[in-house]
């Protein structure tokens, strides 16, 4: 199916009964990136997600935007596709009443407020579960729902520093370095989505919902994985090693005749194959380089020797040569080249959608695959409050009551 056809199909209908989460109703109270990245998984795979957007600012005030930009920004569009939207002023009694009506028929609520904020607004799990005991309530915070830092504002940047990620990223001696993406936000969103699905599965057995939560701190520390385990188990303090792997040698980025490659041959199976492919079979016979521990000890020397050889041939030559003998190797792309790659094209990771104002655009497709199901985008990011009438009518609100809510600034 062509991009044009796919985009034309992705213009309005939010329901698709063939998708695995069809029939699941989700109330989205999230902001920024961590929470929305969780909800996006649910929306992409069929859940009816109702996004609670903030009320319009007073006339003359600047348009609301957060770290992901305003509602027409590429980032915002990518995060909030496949949803419906209603504006609600949750600081007003009327807005809170509408939210409670929505919650009575919902399966899931997702939020990423600081603990004290949701408690002050009266939208914490304890508040909402009273009107719907089957509710699965998912939370992301900066530092956890309890402890001395519970009410601190948290951002990805801070989590990257506190989890040690910055201490192992970048070149040796160059000082702490953040990663180029919001990996803490994305990790928390992915983990909470998994947490929510577990709670929904549990609900099938118990008939009751549950509060599930993670934080940027917890999720990113979990993602530190073997680096954290090196310290916990062996008291081995990880350090920066640039583009190399901290324990698997050789691994790195190497300059070719016309660009760069990323290559890794860290085990006893790949190491001799790499040596032969590079025309250096004698390296494989070198006793001091025969183990990963030995190669770690000779990291600098070995890297220099590999670099000398790699520079003599083109990027394509090395990618073809190494992969033909089972040694992992790939190109180093800029973002424009990523989506030109034939494998990325086959996987259809640039998903078309037609926006009523912005026209046809491509967003990043879901990485999940269900055999036999399409992962096309069903609908672009809605404008704030665009679906309010439909959502309120589904609750049984009369046209008069809807008009009153609008007149009083509730929605």
Describe what you observe in this structure.
The structure is a single chain. The chain has 2 domains: 16-225 and 367-408, Crotonobetainyl-coa:carnitine coa-transferase, domain 1 (Rossmann fold, 3-Layer(aba) Sandwich); 260-331, formyl-coa transferase, domain 3, CATH 3.30.1540. The chain is elongated, with a radius of gyration of 25 Å. It has helices at 3-9, 34-44, 74-79, 93-104, 115-121, 125-128, 156-162, 183-206, 216-234, 270-277, 281-285, 292-297, 299-310, 315-324, 335-338, 342-346, 388-394, 399-407; strands at 25-28, 48-53, 84-87, 108-111, 136-141, 210-215, 251-255, 260-264, 328-331, 350-355, 359-364. By secondary structure, the protein is α/β, with parallel strands linked by helices. A 6-stranded parallel β-sheet has the order 3-2-1-4-5-6, sandwiched between helices. Strand 10 and strand 11 (359-364) form a beta hairpin. The chain is built from 18 helices and 11 strands.
Question: How many DSSP helices?
Answer: 18
Low-confidence stretches: none
Structural class: alpha/beta
Number of strands: 11
Q: Give the quaternary arrangement of the chains.
A: single chain
Count of folded domains: 2
What fold name stands as the CATH topology of the largest domain?
Rossmann fold
Q: What is the 3D form?
A: elongated
The largest sheet has its strands arranged as 3-2-1-4-5-6
First-residue to last-residue Cα separation:
39 Å
The percent range for strand residues is 5-15%
- Cα-based radius of gyration, to the nearest Å: 25 Å
User: What's the architecture of the largest domain, going by CATH?
Assistant: 3-Layer(aba) Sandwich
List SSEs in N-to-C order.
Answer: HEHEHEHEHHEHHEHEEHHHHHEHHEEHH
pLDDT averaged over residues: 95
- Helix % is 25-40%
CATH class of the largest domain: Alpha Beta
- Quick one: biggest sheet? 6 strands, parallel
CATH homologous group name of the largest domain: Crotonobetainyl-coa:carnitine coa-transferase, domain 1
């Amino acid at each position: 199916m062509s991009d044009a056809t796919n985009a034309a199909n992705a213009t309005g209908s939010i329901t698709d009964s063939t998708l695995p989460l069809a029939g699941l109703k989700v109330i989205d109270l999230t902001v920024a990136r961590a929470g929305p990245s969780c909800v996006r998984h649910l929306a992409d795979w069929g859940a009816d997600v109702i996004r609670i957007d903030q009320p319009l600012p007073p006339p003359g005030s600047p348009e609301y935007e957060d770290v992901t930009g305003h509602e027409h920004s590429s980032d915002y569009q990518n995060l909030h596709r496949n949803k419906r939207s209603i504006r609600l002023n949750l600081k007003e009694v009327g807005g809170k009443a509408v939210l409670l009506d929505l919650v009575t028929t919902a399966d899931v609520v997702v939020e990423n407020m600081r603990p004290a904020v949701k408690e002050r607004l009266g939208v914490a799990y304890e508040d909402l579960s009273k009107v719907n005991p089957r509710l699965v309530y998912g939370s992301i915070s900066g530092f956890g729902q309890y402890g001395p830092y519970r009410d601190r504002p948290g951002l990805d940047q801070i989590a990257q520093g506190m989890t040690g990620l910055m201490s192992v990223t970048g070149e040796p001696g160059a000082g702490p370095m953040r990663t180029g993406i919001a990996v803490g936000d994305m990790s928390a969103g992915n983990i909470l989505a998994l947490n929510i699905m577990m709670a929904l599965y549990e609900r099938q057995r118990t008939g009751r919902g549950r509060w599930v939560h993670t934080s940027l701190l917890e999720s990113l520390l979990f993602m530190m994985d073997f680096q954290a385990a090196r310290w916990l188990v062996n008291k081995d303090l990880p350090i920066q090693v640039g583009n190399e792997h901290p324990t698997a040698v050789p691994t790195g980025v190497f300059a070719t005749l016309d660009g760069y490659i990323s290559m890794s041959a860290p085990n006893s199976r790949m190491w001799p194959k790499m040596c032969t492919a590079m025309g250096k079979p004698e390296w494989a016979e070198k006793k001091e380089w025969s183990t990963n521990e030995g190669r770690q000890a000779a990291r600098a020397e070995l890297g220099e020797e590999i670099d000398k050889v790699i520079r003599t041939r083109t990027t394509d030559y090395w990618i073809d040569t190494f992969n033909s003998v089972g040694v992992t190797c790939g190109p180093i792309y800029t973002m424009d080249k990523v989506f030109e790659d034939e494998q990325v094209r086959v996987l259809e990771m640039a998903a078309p959608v037609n926006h009523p104002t912005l026209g046809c655009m491509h967003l990043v497709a879901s990485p999940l695959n269900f055999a036999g199901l399409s992962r096309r985008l069903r609908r672009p990011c809605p404008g704030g409050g665009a679906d309010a009438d439909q959502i309120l009518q589904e609750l049984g609100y009369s046209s008069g009551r809807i008009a009153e809510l609008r007149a009083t600034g509730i929605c």
